[in-house]
Amino acid sequence: MKTIFYFLVFPGFLFALIVGMVASYIERKVTARVQWRVGPPILQPWYDLLKLFTKESVVPENAHLLTFLATPVLFMVSATLVAMYAGMAFFFPDAAFQGDLIVIVYLLTIPPICLILAGAASANPLASLGASREIKLVLSYELVFWMTIAVIWVKTGGELSLVNIMNKPPVMYSYSGGIASVLALFVMQAKLGRVPFDIAEAETEIMAGAYIEYSGPLLGFFKMGQYILLATLPFFISSIFWGGVNVFKYVALLVIVILVENTNPRLKVKQCLKLFWFILFPLSLVALILAVVGL
Amino acid sequence: MNKLKILSKSIWVFHFASAACNNCDIEILDVLTPRFDVERFGVKLVGSIKHADAMLVSGMMNRKGAEFLKDLYDQAPKPLAVIAFGSCASSMGMFKVSYNRVIPVDEIIPVTAYIPGCPPRPEAIIDGVVKVVKKLRGEI
C-alpha cells in the first residue's frame, strides 16, 4: 500500500509531474524572456497535456503495433520510477534501501531505450534517423556518466545509497568532485535532450525524430515522461553532488540547463561523440584518478 | 469539459506550403517574434502533422500539392482546424487563370478560417488566430 502511494502520489507520479510542469513552464518562460518575448501562461504545460489526451491517436499502418503502443507508457513509467527512488531517499530516508544509486542509474537508461524502440517501430524514415541518432547520443554520454558515478563512489568511500551520500560532506568541494560535477552537468543536458545535445530531436533537421509519428494520448505519455525527467534529473544530480536538494539548488541547476540551451547551437553527431569521448572522458579519468589519490 | 475549449488554449500549428512565393512563410515567422509573440496564447509551430491541431495552408494549390494536402489532412489526428493563408490559398489570387492551378483549398478539404492578404500582415494573422479560437469555443 505504501509503495503504491510512493509510486503514484508523493515522490512519484503526481508530485514529479507537477514539479515537472512548473519546471517546463520556467523553461519556456525563461527562454521567452531571453528572446525578449512575453512567453506562455503558467498553466500552459497543463493545457498542452490535457489537449493531447483529448485528441485522437493515429497509428501508422506499417508500425509494429505492440512496440508502438507500449514504449510511451514504458518511457513514462521508468521516468516515474527514477523520480520515486530519488524522492524517497530525500523525503523518506527510512524507506530507501542500500544501492538505490545503481538502480537509478540503470533506470535512467530505459527512457532513451524506449525512445529508440519507438523510433524504430514507427515505420518512418525520419523516426528511424532519430532512433539511430539517439543510439549515438546514448553511446556518447553513458561512459562519462558512469565515470562521474564512480568518482562519487570513490569519494564517499564505497557508498551506493543515496541517503548516505547526502549525509556525507558534498562531493563537489574537492578537486575530483568539482570536475565530476561539471561533467555531470554536460551529461544532464544530454540526457534531457536539450540543445546543444538535441541531435535526436532536431526540429529543423528531422522534425521531431522518434516522436514524429506519435499523436494524441501516446504523445501525451512521452510529454509526461519528459516533464518527470526534467523534474527528476536536476534533483538527482543535486542530491549526489551538491549534498542534498533545496529549492535554491534545484532552480539554479534548472536555470543552468535553460541558459545553456538558449546560448548554444546544436552539435553534429560527430562533434557530440568527439566531445564526450575525447575531451570529457579523459577529464573524467583525471577526476577518477584524483579521487583515488584522495584529492 | 468541452474538448475544443481545451484545444483552443494550446494550438500547435503545422505549416503546409504549397509552392508559396515565401512571403506568406516569412510573415508566419513574424508572429513568433518578440513584437507579436503568439506563444502567449499557447500557439507553437510543430514539424509533424501528427502533432498538429491546426494546419496553415499557404501558396497556390497546384497539381502535385493538392494530393499531398489531401493525404496530410487524412493523416492528421482530429479535431483539426485548417486555415487558408493568403490570397492564393483562399481564392487562388492572381493565378486564377494559370494552367497549373487546380482548385482553391476549401474545395479539397474543409477550411475553418481564411486569412486574406498578399502577404497577410501579422495583425491579420493574429486576427485569424482569434477567429479560429472563437470558432473552436463555439462563440461564432
- Biggest interface, residues from each chain: A-B, 30 and 22 residues
Mean pLDDT of chain B: 83
* CATH level 3 topology of chain B: Rossmann fold
Shape of chain B: globular
List the defining traits of the structure above.
heterodimer, A: 295 residues, mainly alpha, 13 helices, 72% helix, B: 140 residues, alpha/beta, five-stranded parallel sheet, 5 strands, 34% helix, globular
Task: Report a brief summary of the structure.
By secondary structure, chain A is mainly α. Chain A has helices at 2-8, 13-34, 44-54, 65-91, 100-107, 110-121, 125-155, 162-167, 175-191, 203-206, 216-241, 247-263, 269-293.
Molecular structure report:
The complex is a heterodimer of chains A (295) and B (140). Helices cover 72% and strands 0% of the residues of chain A. Chain A has 295 residues and is mainly alpha-helical. The mean pLDDT of chain A is 88. Chain A starts with a helix and ends with a helix. Chain B has a single domain, classed as Rossmann fold, CATH 3.40.50. Chain B has five helices and five strands; from the N terminus they run H-E-H-E-E-H-E-H-E-H. In chain B, strands 2-1-3-4-5 form a five-stranded parallel beta sheet. The radius of gyration of chain B is 14 Å and the shape is globular. The mean pLDDT of chain B is 83. At the A-B interface, helix 3 of A face helix 1 of B.
SSE map:
The complex is a heterodimer of chains A (295) and B (140).
Chain A: H1 2-8, H2 13-34, H3 44-54, H4 65-91, H5 100-107, H6 110-121, H7 125-155, H8 162-167, H9 175-191, H10 203-206, H11 216-241, H12 247-263, H13 269-293
Chain B: H1 3-7, E1 12-17, H2 23-30, E2 44-46, E3 54-58, H3 63-75, E4 81-85, H4 86-91, E5 113-115, H5 122-137
Parallel strand pairs in B: 1-2, 1-3, 3-4, 4-5
